[in-house]
Amino acid sequence: MDLIILFICIVAGGILTSLGVHMMPVGGAPAAMGTATGIATGVTMISTGAAMTGLFTASTVETMTSNIWLVVLSGAVGSMLMMAFTMLGGNIIYTLAAGIVPVSGRVDVDPITKRPFLPFKTPQTDGHGTPDVSYISGVIGAFLGGSGGALIYYGLVNYADFSAPLAGISAMGIFLTNAVLSAYNIGGTIEGFHDPKFKLLPRALKACFIGSLICAVFASLISYAGGL
Amino acid sequence: MDAEGKVKEKIGFGWPDQRNLMIIALVVSVITAVATELPPAIKAVGLILAIAWGADVVRTITHYGIGTGVPSIGMLALGMGMVGAFAGMSMSGFFATGVGSYAGVLIGVALVAIGGLIYGLVAVKIIKMDIPVMVRGMMELTTAGALVVINASSMLAGTWHIDAVLGSVVASGWIAVIFILSAMGMLHPYNACLGPDERRGRTLTLSVEIGTILCMLLGINLVFADPVNGSLLILVSAIIWIASYVSFVKACMREAYETVGTGLIKTLG
């Protein structure tokens, strides 16, 4: 029974990770020059950073309670805080230091707040900064990614009897493999759930299902053969 | 042609081609991983070779442009490789004594290679990445990652059996250092040397340099528990580090059109 729950935890965590990665607004190297919408780094790096923060909060809460919802939600909150502060910091630098307004390059009007983007977009660029819709999408993505990482951690600690450090580093490894597969699917840059690339999601979900199954087999081997 | 020959002659060390490097690195690092009685200074050679192998595969795959930046593939290699390495190390639970107790590494390597194969197939068939070397490259990358983790753990703990590794490598937090520095050794060289004038020898020299930094750090930890082996490890890796650093900087200075020193690091002219 424990084995089945472990598999469910890792596979569900992997799929949540994939969903979360698809919602992160990342622009890669062009964003560092202010010529693309999103955070100026790779999607793997930012989602790993968010998941690491989530793992810290989740593992802290895990020492006090074994309630799955509390652990998963605390991981999600840690990730959301990290993403929110990163996007806020980026936006402050873009608006106050570089003097450019956060606009999206994919849509003309913000789908949520209905603010116009077109008049503020610099010609020849693909948008800049993190506008409202990407910000909200990023926070939702961090919620999903963080809860995915925390779910993997919870499954490893409670159903595979991993020690906290081993579970932490293994959860990070499993998260990374899923995040990289999802990053390949979107080709490095995405603006959020309004981006046309978001429609490629189903094939990343399929890929991450298979990818996290392999990791789950490894984790159950460690637990069973290692006598943990 | 003449200029290329001159460069090789000046560095004085020709790298084997890609397939030979793979075979040499695989054989040497499997031997150093299986033979746990070897001194850490010799295991360091296997570790450095495995990192150089990984850097070479990263170079081959990212040549095609993967869209997410070079670092992601190094992180994938170590993320998958580390979990697979733990699975291989835990095989010591099945075979506690006898010849079987050496088989854990081989089982771990085989498991990780199968995992990497499935990952490569998923990336090509489902994600539809248009990279011909993806399947083989993923297999090699994850295997190299697992071998690096097993070698580094066995350098620190003296064995790769999971009970010893859990205490002195995982619980002490050294696994994080091993993880990020060996990922750095695979992903950073091509990321830094990337460009039209990228040369394979220079890229691999940089990966050797980062690998020796990891060995030196492991030696600094080891020297308190085992002064003789620890200091030997620091000595050997420091010598390789100085040699690779000097040859890398010299190669950069020679192959660049023009260089301007900041004065922060002594660049040896």
| Mean pLDDT across residues of chain A | 90
Beta percentage of chain A is under 5%
Distance between the termini of chain B: 25 Å
Q: Helix content range of the residues of chain B, please?
A: over 70%
Q: What's the structural domain tally of chain A?
A: 1
The number of strands of chain A is 3
Largest contact between chains: A-B, 40 and 42 residues
Count of individual helical segments of chain B: 10
Low-confidence stretches of chain B: 1-7
**Strand-and-helix sequence of chain A, N→C?**
HHEHHEEHHH
Going across the major beta sheet of chain A, what is the strand order? Answer: 1-3-2
- Main sheet attributes: strand count, strand direction, barrel closure of chain A: 3 strands, mixed
Q: Structural class, judged by helices and strands of chain A?
A: mainly alpha
Major sheet attributes of chain B? none
Structural class of chain B: mainly alpha
Residue fraction in strands of chain B = under 5%
User: How confident is the prediction overall: mean pLDDT of chain B?
Assistant: 86
Uncertain residue ranges of chain A: none
Choose one word for the global shape of chain B.
globular
